[in-house]
Design brief:
The longest helix is centred in the C-terminal third of the chain and has 21 residues, at 100-120. Strands 1, 2, 3, 4 and 5 form a five-stranded antiparallel β-sheet that branches. By secondary structure, the protein is an alpha+beta fold. The chain has one domain (31-120). It is extended, with a radius of gyration of 19 Å. Helices cover 28% and strands 25% of the residues.
C-alpha cells in the first residue's frame, strides 16, 4: 500500500461513537481510542501523600478504556496498570485486552470480592 493510499484510507475511516481521535489522518493512526477512566491506587508504594490530585503526578493507577485497532477489528476493553518503581523489579506498566464479556466477568468478580471483604469487616 502506498502512502497516498494509506492516507486516503485513514481519511475515509468511520469512527466508533466513543472514539477520541477525531482526525485519524493527522494522527497517522487508524485505531479508535476511547476516554481513559482512571483510578488512583492509594495503597501502593510511592503514592503521593499530599492533599493534591495524585493523577497529576506519577501516581500508581489503573485505567480502562475502549479500543479498536482499526475498522473491521473487534471493539475491546483495555485495562492498563501502572506503578513506577524504585527499582526495575517493582515497576509495572502493562495492559491487557479483554472482550466485553471478559470485562463484565472481571467486574462481577471484583464486586464479589468487595462484598466478601465488606461482609467480613462487620
Amino acid at each position: 500500500m502506498t502512502t497516498a493510499e494509506y492516507t486516503s484510507r485513514l481519511a475515509a475511516m468511520e469512527c466508533t461513537p466513543w472514539c477520541t481521535v477525531r482526525d485519524h489522518e493527522a494522527a497517522h493512526d487508524p485505531a479508535c481510542w476511547g476516554p481513559d477512566r482512571v483510578t488512583a491506587l492509594s495503597l501502593e508504594d510511592d503514592f503521593p501523600t499530599a492533599a493534591v490530585n495524585p493523577l497529576q503526578f506519577d501516581a500508581p493507577r489503573a485505567s480502562v478504556y475502549p479500543y479498536r485497532q482499526e475498522p473491521g477489528y473487534r471493539e475491546v476493553v483495555k485495562l492498563h496498570l501502572y506503578r513506577a518503581g524504585r527499582n526495575e523489579f517493582r515497576e509495572l506498566d502493562a495492559e491487557v485486552v479483554m472482550t466485553l464479556d471478559e470485562a463484565r466477568q472481571l467486574i462481577a468478580h471484583v464486586l464479589e470480592v468487595v462484598d466478601d471483604v465488606e461482609a467480613g469487616a462487620r
